[in-house]
Amino acid sequence: MRRLVATGAAVLAGAIATLVVAPRDGAGAAGPQPAVLKVGDRVTVEGEPLGCRVARQGGHVIMDCRRGGQLTGTYGTVISARRALVVRYRSNSVAKVVFTATHGGGARLCR
After folding, report:
1. In what order do the strands lie in the sheet with 60-67?
2. What is the rounded distance in angstroms from the CA atom of residue 11 to the CA atom of residue 67?
């Protein structure tokens, strides 16, 4: 089960990263170029209620990705240089960590 959740979180993070930096209208046929973001920047996916923001949390820079609109019952990801979290929103302002993993280390399913 943990391996399945870890794989799902990794696939979600990869999909979001791909959507964020993919070129528009066929531009950059040689492949997508990386987008460099800084704290305060936001990105959205055209035509989808999905977005990410770069923020500072607990002294670390994070990428916070979630669906727009009402958050209760939805999931989001928080990725830093040290770890990745999957959270489930209990309200628009409160979320519970349901999965955590450390880059190059272990993973843990939270109950």
Report:
1. 42-44, 50-57, 60-67, 75-80, 83-89, 95-102, 107-109
2. 16
Q: Which residue has the tokens 């349901």?
A: 98
Q: Which of 109, 101, 107 is nearest to 84 (CA)?
A: 101
pLDDT in tens, 74-107: 999 999 999 999 999 999 999 999 999 999 888 8
Per DSSP, the residues of 11-50 read HHHHHHHHHHHPPSTT--TT-PPPPP--TT-EEE-TTSSE
The partner residues of 54 in beta bridges, in order of sequence, read 63
Give the phi and the psi of residue 68 in degrees, each rounded to 5.
Answer: -85, 170
pLDDT tens sequence across 4-25: 444 444 445 554 554 455 545 5
Q: Which amino acid is at 5?
A: V
